[in-house]
Design brief:
Elements lengths: L48 E2 L9 E5 L4 E6 L3 E7 L2 H22 L22 H13 L4 H14 L2
Helix pairs in contact: 2-3
């Protein structure tokens, strides 16, 4: 996130192109959580805020340890687009940003990105990785007497739940 004063919002013209997600800050990984998950707050408790779907897009406000503030996004419509010290303020900013983006799409006559709300996930996807990484994964799985799938799932869970 660019360094800005807490509570400020990027206008749609300064945001990434519609459908793109901002890159993670160099200092750490971006935490991506489903709307139903309430991420940890800076105080260590459960908090975070997500709204019911709005025009088919969920709004997510989560604490970002890397940025030291709350960050809002509405994937896949807009990535990390607003931030601040107060969760409720960031949620209000996010609502305004989403409405701005929806207006831009309407005004330009462009179709909205496909929402993830209500989408069914099969629990499987194909992953392409280099042969060296595949070999390393197979060796680690074999040495732990586990399947490649189990080891890969564990690594993904650890990565996505960190933060």
């Amino acid at each position: 996130m660019p360094s800005k004063k807490p509570g400020t919002t990027r206008s749609p013209r300064q945001s990434p192109k519609p459908g793109q997600i901002d890159a993670a800050p160099a200092s750490g990984q971006r935490s991506v959580r489903p709307a139903a998950v309430r991420p940890p707050t800076k105080r260590g408790g459960a908090a975070g805020r997500s709204s019911p779907p709005d025009h088919g897009f969920v709004k997510i406000v989560e604490w970002s340890p890397e940025d030291g503030c709350y960050v809002g996004s509405a994937p896949p419509l807009v990535g990390r687009c607003c931030h601040g010290d107060e969760e409720a303020d960031v949620f209000r900013q996010l609502c305004a940003v989403v409405e701005d983006w929806l207006e831009i799409y309407r005004r330009e006559g462009r179709p909205l990105p496909t929402s993830l709300v209500g989408r069914r996930f099969s629990g499987k996807f194909q992953l392409r990785l280099g042969s060296d990484l595949h070999r390393l994964l197979a060796l680690r799985a074999a040495s732990a007497n586990r399947s490649i799938n189990d080891l890969a799932v564990e690594a993904i869970e650890k990565t996505l739940s960190a933060g």
